[in-house]
C-alpha cells in the first residue's frame, strides 16, 4: 500500500513536471515566434506615418443593441471594452508624460459610455429576474464590475 502511494505520487509528479515543462516550452516558442511582449497589448499598434487619411473609429454601443446580446456575449464585450479603456488610458498617460497630444481623445468617452450602457442592460436583466436570490446575486456581481 505504501509503495503504491509512493510510486503513484512520483509518477504523477513526473507527469505534471513534463506537462508543465511542455507548456513552458510551447509558451516560450510561441513568444519567440511572434516576438510580442504581452504588455504590448496596453499600447496601440503604431500606424504608418506616410498615411494621409485619418483613422476613423467606431461609435459606442447602443443599449438597444446590447439588449439583444446573450449573457456570455455581454461578459466578453465587457472585458474587450475594459482592455480598450486600459489601453487608451495607458497611451494617454504615456503621451502626457512626454508632453505630447493624445490623438483621438473622443475614443475614451465612447468606451466609457458603452461600459455604462452595458452595466445598465445587465441591471435591467437583474431586476427582471423572478428569483430574488438570483437577482441579488446578479446585482452584487454587476456592482463589482
How many separate helices? Answer: 5
Category from helices, strands and their pairing: mainly alpha
- Mean pLDDT across the residues is 77
Q: Determine the fraction of residues in helical runs and give it as a percent range.
A: 55-70%
Radius of gyration: 23 Å
Cα distance spanning the termini? 50 Å
Task: Tag the structure with descriptive keywords.
single chain, 145 residues, mainly alpha
Describe it.
By secondary structure, this protein is mostly helical. Helices cover 69% and strands 0% of the residues. The chain is built from five helices and no strands. The chain has helices at 2-34, 63-67, 71-97, 107-128, 132-144. Helix 3 (71-97) runs antiparallel to helix 4 and helix 4 (107-128) packs antiparallel against helix 5 (132-144). The protein is elongated. The model is unreliable at 1-32 (pLDDT under 50).
Q: Nutshell version of this structure?
A:
This protein is mainly alpha-helical. It has 5 helices and no strands.
List the helices and strands and how they pair.
Elements: H1 2-34, H2 63-67, H3 71-97, H4 107-128, H5 132-144
Helix pairs in contact: 3-4, 4-5
Amino acid at each position: 500500500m505504501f509503495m503504491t502511494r509512493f510510486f503513484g505520487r512520483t509518477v504523477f509528479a513526473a507527469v505534471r513536471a513534463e506537462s508543465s515543462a511542455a507548456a513552458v516550452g510551447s509558451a516560450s516558442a510561441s513568444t519567440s515566434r511572434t516576438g510580442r511582449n504581452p504588455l504590448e497589448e496596453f499600447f496601440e499598434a503604431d500606424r504608418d506615418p506616410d498615411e494621409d487619411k485619418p483613422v476613423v473609429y467606431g461609435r459606442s454601443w447602443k443599449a438597444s443593441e446590447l439588449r439583444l446580446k446573450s449573457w456570455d456575449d455581454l461578459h466578453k464585450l465587457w472585458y474587450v471594452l475594459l482592455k480598450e479603456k486600459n489601453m487608451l488610458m495607458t497611451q494617454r498617460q504615456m503621451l502626457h508624460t512626454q508632453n505630447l497630444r493624445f490623438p483621438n481623445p473622443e475614443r475614451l468617452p465612447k468606451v466609457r459610455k458603452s461600459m455604462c450602457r452595458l452595466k445598465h442592460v445587465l441591471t435591467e436583466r437583474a431586476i427582471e429576474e423572478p428569483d430574488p436570490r438570483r437577482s441579488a446575486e446578479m446585482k452584487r456581481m454587476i456592482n463589482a464590475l
